[in-house]
Structure formats: structure tokens, C-alpha cells
Target: Aromatic ring-hydroxylating dioxygenase subunit alpha
Amino acid sequence: MTPPSFEAARTRHQKARAAGLHPDYWYAVEWDHAVKPGQVVEIVFWKKSIALYRGEDGVLRAVDDRCAHRQLKLSAGNVKGCNLVCLYHGWEHGEDGRIAHIPHERFGKQIPKSKITTYPVQVRHGLIWIFPGDPALASVREVPAIPELAEGWPSVPVDATWNGHHSMIIDNVSDFTHEYLHEKYKPFSDPELTKLEVVDDRVHVGYRTKVGGDPKTEMVLNPSIDRGSIELCYSYPYQWSDTDGKIKHWCFVLPIDERRTRVFFLFLFAPDTYRLPFTRIRMPLAMVRGMLKIAKRAYIVPLLEQDRVAIEAEQVAHELHHDLPIPELNPAVQEFQRLTISKWEEALA
Model:
């Protein structure tokens, strides 16, 4: 049986797993390097298709993914100059969403005044961001600041599309009770919840734990870093963590629908995080960046793959057993879900 819609859901758990994300925020949708001049790609935000394209002038633009004529997907067409061209009749759509050119006979008629919706776009942190909500709020809301990137911190970018609801991902990255799942890699161990604060649209969580217990990482981590605790925050709709101001990460989710989510991770490491093995000598940045490329393949991606498997299994379980009660023990997860629900109720109001 299909899980209930948000309106029909009876429990907090059901509502959280049916909620979308409020459109009045900036959402990471693609890496900047992935969209070349003259290229168009389809972006889906909560079942709404958006055509993102880079004109031949190098500027990014985003419009409804439908031709103003027969409603075909414009992402199946091509870019001409700064216009987006439908593959069927060749109608060109300008960056303002209006029809800019019709290549065939118009039978004595003027170009229709039809207009498709346009969306604010910007590039920050190597990512393309789209504002799918009220464009008047785009200048009020801000993309999260990540000053560490401008300061030259080494970073590891990772993205994936997982067959799971976005709330499952937020629960996963901030709920450390799933230590058992990562027994092989040991990113954290023996977690104890020490902090839970809800402030406006943020849920702050703290754990007393051992961060980074894998023996291979122990050899190169700076011993002066306090890895005995970690702070995390669900700063709606984003998520971040901080270990002693030296090891950080950001998680940005792009909700596709109730069953699929694209997720972008940025892992950040202070320049003095690593030392040469068995010494107290700071590892040169060039060496750190090379090591992190190896760590991404050998540790970070496989670690996230474990999360993917668990989240996708949870999605299947939810669809099969959504009517059964969920005895959630971690109060932090309950607060994550309450925030997701309240913001979606706000969006629907």
C-alpha cells in the first residue's frame, strides 16, 4: 500500500516522510563545472522540472522545463546564443522566459506573449544554486557562508542521488545512534547525546564521542585536535557538523520527490589537521590534498555508500510498513522531523 500523502498522514513519522522542502530557500542543484557553455540540463525540485542552461556567453539561467508552445521539455532541446530552443518546432525562449524567435511561418500572427517562469541562479562554493520559490525573497535568503573555502582549506566534494526521502538523509547524518552501520570505518564511536537545542529554524545537536577512530587516520591526524566531541546542526534546509573547528562538513539536499533525493557533501579540513605519519610535523598542503583524493575513494565514498544502502532500505521498509508505529528513541530525530513538518506546513499555507 502506498504511504499516505502529507495531508492524509496521521503520525509525525508519516508526515515527515511525505513532506517536501520549503521552496523559499536556495538549493544546490549541480556542480558549476558540470554545465558547460551551450549546455542544458534538467533539474527536478520536488517533482517540478527546471531547465538549467549556460548560454554561449557563459551565464547560467534557469526556466520552467517546458516549451511555451506544446509544453515539451526544453531540457531536451539545445542552447542558441543566450536562448533555449525547443527540439520540436525550434521556438526560442529568452532568459526572461518569453518567446524570442519562431523560425517557421507565423501565418500573419504576432509572436505569442506566452511566458514561462524563470528562477534566480547563482554560483557559490563551486555549486550552482537555484531559488525555486518566491523570487522576491531570493535577495533576502542567503546561501550558507563557508569561509573556510576562501581561506584555502582542503576539501572533499561528493554527491549522489539516493532512492530515499530527504528527511531520512537529515536523520542519518545527524543521528549518531547508527554507529553499528559503520563498524568497518569507525567515523565515530560510543556517542552520547550531550546537547539538543531548538532555536528558530535550527536544531543544534552535540555528542560526546570519538571522531575518526580508524587506525589509518590515527597515524596522520594532529593529536592536538579535540576529537572527543562533535557539534551538528540541522539549519533548515541545510545540515553541518564541526569537530573542534578543524574538521567540518556541509550537507545540501535536493528533494526530487518522496522517494529520491540528490545530496551534495562538502568535507572541510583545516590546514593543520594532518601531520606526517608518526611525527608532529605538519603535512604540506599539496600532500594533504593528494591524500584526501585517495581518502575520498578509499574511505569517504565507501562510508557514504553504507549510508545509501541503509537509507534506501529504510525507504523500502517505509513504503511496506508505514502504518506500523516507530519507537524512535533519539529525541534529536524527533526534533528534526518536527522542523521539517512545520516548514512544509508553512510552505503549503
